[in-house]
TrEMBL record:
Source taxonomy: Eukaryota, Metazoa, Spiralia, Lophotrochozoa, Mollusca
Signal peptide: none
Enzyme Commission number, as recorded: 1.5.1.2
Record GO terms (molecular function): pyrroline-5-carboxylate reductase activity
Enzyme class: oxidoreductase
Species name: Pinctada imbricata
Domain Pyrroline-5-carboxylate reductase catalytic N-terminal: 105-199
The name this protein goes by in its record: pyrroline-5-carboxylate reductase
Catalytic activity annotation: L-proline + NADP(+) = (S)-1-pyrroline-5-carboxylate + NADPH + 2 H(+); L-proline + NAD(+) = (S)-1-pyrroline-5-carboxylate + NADH + 2 H(+)
Alphabetical keyword list: Amino-acid biosynthesis, Cytoplasm, Oxidoreductase, Proline biosynthesis
Length: 364
């Protein structure tokens, strides 16, 4: 039986037992369902079932999946019901956060590329209305760009703070302290400061603001400019769980967003902050290799970029370990394993690990 025919048989079997499942388009869920194809019975795999439950997009789908497991042992059924409740609570919280954002005013101190990317993403996701955003900058050309997204603009930082519930600090690290001191007199307890200034600690931020100001520090990366970013946030001493949820919802418009601690941010910088630079070098080198072997430069570069994009997507969407995916590419005695031997001899892995380490040391 071909792979396609086998997949259709598996999905058909699931859809007979729970018709709602056929409408699920989530590629990760699809992959997880197919992983259980040996028995066509999810009840034999509690871990797999838990993964599937966590990926389902609606309560209707959760009940559809639960209907597959009527024969499941009572202990497993209890665990599934608990999982369903947890998912529902998370959904309700996200819905409340999104509703809160509809009426929230967001300000940007600094209207550079990252602020522009955020404003564009917020408008596209309809998570914050343009009229509820305001930006300040000393450079008129930056204000002219961000104004294209419907953002109100000014050269007065205090005006931004006065008229915003959430203020994104998007200025160069060396001017963070004087900017905060400038706006400190108009800061009130109901305002939340979100800093994306690299290397500026929570302690520095809090020391230059009134006591108990709610502060969250975020480490984004440049792919946020194309809504494929990876951001990690660290809450300050006065930030609440609701503040973390709010900031996370905003930065998810730019890609993924995770909650961490400040002592992890240097390592985050080494992996995702500087990671795109490693990727760009890899794409350039692969493209050079293609040119060496006779490919036109533009074709070689497109193929190299798509290869890395596809590889990254497979890691994120299948949930498989990168090593397993690599093994699936490398056939015995084949071309890929021969190439891997060359990379290993050149210290490819060690060089990447040491690059992350060097970045982390520099941050410290």
């Amino acid at each position: 039986m071909t792979g396609v025919a086998s997949e259709q048989k598996i999905l058909k079997s699931y859809s007979r037992r729970a018709p709602d499942l056929i409408s699920i388009k989530d590629s990760v869920l699809r992959s997880l369902l197919l992983e259980s194809s040996k028995t066509l019975n999810l009840t034999h795999s509690p871990l797999l079932l838990s993964q599937v439950m966590g990926r389902l997009a609606s309560q209707r789908h959760r009940f559809a999946l639960l209907s597959i497991c009527n024969e499941a042992p009572s202990g497993m059924r209890c665990a599934l019901e608990t999982k369903m409740v947890m998912c529902s609570v998370m959904e309700e919280r996200e819905a409340l956060v999104r509703q809160q954002l509809k009426t929230m005013t967001v300000g940007f101190i600094g209207a550079g590329r990252m602020a522009q990317a955020m404003a564009k993403a917020f408008v596209a996701a309809e998570i914050v209305t343009p009229n509820n955003m305001r930006a300040s900058d000393t450079m008129p050309q930056m204000l002219n760009i961000i104004k294209k997204f419907g953002v109100n603009t000014t050269s007065d930082n205090k005006e931004v703070v006065k008229n915003s519930n959430l203020i994104v600090l998007a200025v160069k690290p060396n001017i963070v302290a004087p900017v905060l001191q400038e706006v400190s007199e108009v800061m009130t307890r109901d305002k939340l400061i979100v800093s994306i200034a690299a290397g500026v600690t929570l302690n520095t931020l809090e020391q230059n603001l009134p006591r108990n100001t709610r502060v969250v520090r975020v480490m984004p990366n440049t792919p946020a400019l194309v809504q494929e970013g990876a951001s990690v946030l660290a809450p300050g001493s006065s930030a609440s769980d609701d503040d973390k949820a709010l900031v996370c919802s905003l930065f998810k418009c730019l890609g993924i967003c995770e909650v961490g601690t400040e002592d992890q941010l240097d390592a985050v910088t080494g992996v995702s902050g500087s990671g795109p630079a490693y990727g760009f070098v890899a794409i350039e080198a692969l493209a050079d290799g293609g040119v060496l072997m006779g490919l036109p430069r533009d074709l070689s570069q497109r193929l190299a970029a798509q290869a890395l994009l596809g590889a990254a997507k497979m890691v994120l969407e299948t949930g498989k370990h990168p090593g397993q995916l690599k093994d699936e590419v490398c056939s015995p005695g084949g071309t890929s394993i021969a190439a891997m031997k060359k990379l290993e001899r050149g210290g490819f892995r060690a060089n990447l690990i040491e690059a992350v380490e060097a970045c982390n040391i520099t941050c410290s």
